[in-house]
Amino acid sequence: MSSSFNDLPDLGVGIVYWPELHPLLEHNNDLVNVIEVEPQAMWHETNHHCVPYIIDPNILQLLQELPHPKLIHSVGMPIGSSRSPVTEQLPLLCQMVNDLHAVWASEHLSFSHAASECQLSPTGFLLPPLQTMAGVERAVQAIQRIAASLPIPFAIETGVNYLKPQPGELSDGQFIATITDEANCGILLDLHNIWTNELNGRQSIQEFLSEIPLERVVEIHLAGGCEYEGYWLDAHSDLVPRHLIEITASLIPRLPNLHALIFEILPIFVSHIGLGQVQVQLEQLHQIWKLRRTGSNLMASAFAPSLPRFKVDQNTNEVTPEKWEDTLGAIVTGQSIEEGELFIHLNSDPGSKILRSLVESVRAGMVMDGIKLTSRLLMLECGVDYFQQLLSDFWKSSPPQMFTSAEALNFATYVSKLKLDVPYLQEVLNFEGAQLHEVRTGETQIVHFPFNPVPLLQALLSGQLPSELMLGNYQMEITSTLGSQVRIAKNQRNS
Amino acid sequence: MEINPIKGNVQNTFNSGSPIIVRVPHEVAFDLNKTQTVLQNVLNKLGCRACTSGFDIRFTIERDFIVNPKTLEVNSVQQF
């Protein structure tokens, strides 16, 4: 695995692919050299144990038809966990690697699950692992397990961490260096993450760079962020800050095995930034990509297992990775846990409050995307404050889910059980719940309406309540969401 | 049994009592297609969250949209 990094092609400047950025691929063949795909963001969760995840074949075909080289950037199997990674995702991940002829794959040095009341549940957010030698050991095991399953080289992304540095832990740079040396894997250097960490009081970017094995850096991520409650967030919401561009430009000549420079922006912000500005950003990245040095003399030391770079006292931090994950997970998701010393310590860290807000924002966002019309109906009928309270109550009763469909279905079930006196609520819940069930099961769903549902759905899609609905016994047949066919029928006997 | 709701005629093509397909006027059919397109766009967003550690503004957008449906714009990160 490791030696194959030495034979990788120089891919150039690229983007994380979203349909909103597609026009950039059509107008200028040289603007985007490589496309990075975040697979799980395009998957659907199913109810089938044998095939737990599927991808829309239309999306897969669209990606396959793009002539650009592809990279796989996994977002669902972080390797910073004390528990085994979510390996049921591996088969589809490997399939996408093969279908897209991906050049290499990467994953985050984070954890995404925690145990609460004897159950392992998602945390709803990628969270920072415990940076001790025990944490190193767990990460190396996870990397080796995933890397052994993949037919292409594997790299880990340097993560963001909103918490204060912990007593007795490795520095951010030492942690990455020790893991990647022991696992003999590549580094996806997310410079915006490292810069974010510095701005929020962790290790400086220069000190971090002085500690990591630069020859292992195969890819750079750049992005923009925003300020929130006194913290800088890795929000992928803007262009790359000028200072970070300067840092990148000075670093690139020092990276002998850099093969790709990727700009990340979330699709929801593309219209706000404007495609023209994204194009200017990519042109700027092409300029700094030219600063890269190449030459076989620089490759000589690449990817050879190395001796430990840092002397670490393994007894300076007695917290286990499992306890760290369960405690931090419970704090940021609002689940109950024994309030011991670590809980008190982490709970007093202002970064925990930030993480909790971010988790809640993600959960609210998932509900918005999963059952948008139900959410609009509730906000229109009951008010925004009432709806927010509903969400808050729901979060206390149910842990987060990794997939939007599961989170939205859980909220739909929660709301349905409340039997709220809101006109059309049950019908809209039934409709959106049926859509989600159809996606998860592939089975045709029938939804009954005592009125013509089209004006109701159209009104809610416009952000308004319906004025008048024609009564009758209607039903909607929802078939194959991958083709998204909805057929309306009206029962003769009761019409 | 199929019904044309515009003309009110009934065609006996199915057994009595079975669901009958409503053949909707062109305008309504167009609206239904439009509705389906929007709903399908929603259903294409049911996977994992993308790689980011930022504030998720989807609720903020929806909240603002409810207040003023004509301005479905990304404004700024606001506290939930």
What does this structure look like?
- The complex is a heterodimer of chains A (495) and B (80).
- Chain A is built from 19 helices and 17 strands.
- With 495 residues, chain A is an alpha/beta fold.
- Chain A has an 8-stranded parallel barrel with strand order 1-2-5-6-9-10-11-14, surrounded by 4 helices.
- In chain A, strand 9, helix 5 and strand 10 (186-190) form a beta-alpha-beta unit.
- In chain A, helix 15 (372-382) runs antiparallel to helix 18 and helix 17 packs antiparallel against helix 18.
- The longest helix of chain A is centred in the C-terminal third of the chain and has 21 residues, at 350-370.
- With 80 residues, chain B is an alpha+beta fold.
- Chain B has 2 helices and 3 strands; from the N terminus they run E-E-E-H-H.
- Residues 1-29 and 73-80 of chain B have low confidence and may be disordered.
- Chains A and B meet through strand 3, strand 12, helix 9, helix 14 and helix 15 of A and strand 3, helix 1 and helix 2 of B.
- Strand 17 of chain A pairs antiparallel with strand 3 (19-21) of chain B, so a sheet runs across the interface.
